Amino acid sequence: MPTVQIKDEARIGTDARIKLQPSVYLEKLFQTGTPDLSWMNQHGEWGIHAKPGNLGLRLKDIEIGSYGVIPNHGGEHRSMAPRGAVVPSDVPSLGFTVNEKAECWADNAMELYEEAVARQWSSARDIPWSELKPLPDDLEHAMCQLCTFLTEVEFIAADAPTRWMSQINQDFLEVKLFLATQAMDEARHTDVFRKRALANGGGLGKASALSQLSLKRIFDSPSFSAQTARLHLLGEGFVLTMFRQGEFIAPSRVDSEIFRRCMQDESRHVGYGTMHLRAQLNARPDLADEIHEQLDDAESILLQLFSVPESVEPMAILLGGGLQHFDQGMEMQANLWRRVVNEYLQRCDSAGLDRRPRCLLPTDFTKLFAA
Amino acid sequence: MAAKFPDAEWFLALGRLMESEGELFRRLGYAEVRFVIRIVGDDGHAERETAIELDGYKLGRAATLDNALDFDPDFTICATAAVWNRMLSEIARDGRPEARHTLSSLALIGEELWLESGDQLREDKYYRYNQTLQEFLNLSGKLPR
Question: What ipTM does the predicted assembly reach?
């Protein structure tokens, strides 16, 4: 029988601090040669035949029998033992703190996870970088400032939810899987906007203290649902519209490809957040006040963010097609602002949150300029 | 005689091309979405409607829509014949519409082309699958004329 050659094999274990002790089971196996096989009698529901659909074997296809029952309360053992498996009594707890289904669940999490896996893309491979051509200085400056902002804010949607991901009971695995794809999406967004800023003769522009403040508030959210309201519903909803604008304003096919692909990813994140809040507010209507308070603050910061030149002017220059059409760009921005607010409020409606009376965001863009 | 937009047969021809260009759509990822293409007349009313269903990497259904209640689309894409024809002409010429005349750009401005949907979450599928929808229409550049 061929053997694997291992470097310095004789030295392995010579300084080990713990002495190897064979288990009772292994000693017995060595002595009798008879396998134990008792584990074959310890299993979850048996005889399961999950059938693939036309797009392969997806999560929804294995949500069958007892395996398809998502408990309202996560397992008390708080371990990573798989839902539906036989869980020994001595598994150590990992200390999960999000143990109620309503605290994290969204009915579309499985669908969005599979979709995210199927629709992954590579910023190196799928963006036609070789088609990038020099732009007039004003457009390149504006695009680089926009990319700076997006590079700055995008990774919060990986860092912040994954802080909570590690706190979510493993029985809500589907949510954790989805959040993992969101983290990957945001990694790609961060890399693609950084690459774009550095690829066409420009570079990174000015970071923003207000952006950082909004990120910090997301990071410090007191609960996963509070974070979801700030991040998925308002923040990512806002960025989603920016991505949609991005394709429209794109001065090159490279830019339009970047924005369109990011837009698709971001739509999934917003979809998860909206459905999660719907589930949470259905289960705990009393949380609406907490969510409103979070959004009061988040909207206020968003308004401040939209009151500084590095936020307002790049988009107007890109929308207008150049500095000489700045006024036209501002007009278009005003129309788009109305759309941003409308879509945000519609998502709040979908989530079951009556935000309209309390919303700080004016539907009329000109109200940002004068009291 | 070749089928014309927005005949169901025209979309079925796109569906056949979609299957022959399978690699492109597999790379984009699957799409599960049902929508209506609406031709809006000058009076603002629907002149014609075609129901489309994308089922993974292929066209699942294309049919003239007589009764919207029978179909329950995720969204309806509305535009005048002139706007649709401009997009299709640009696709025929360049393989894709001009950047400001794509499905995404037109819906963003919402004047020449707009979406109708009863649920923002279902409408969001327009954006989740946008590249697939655009590439699907871009296949029209390969139809015989």
Answer: 0.89
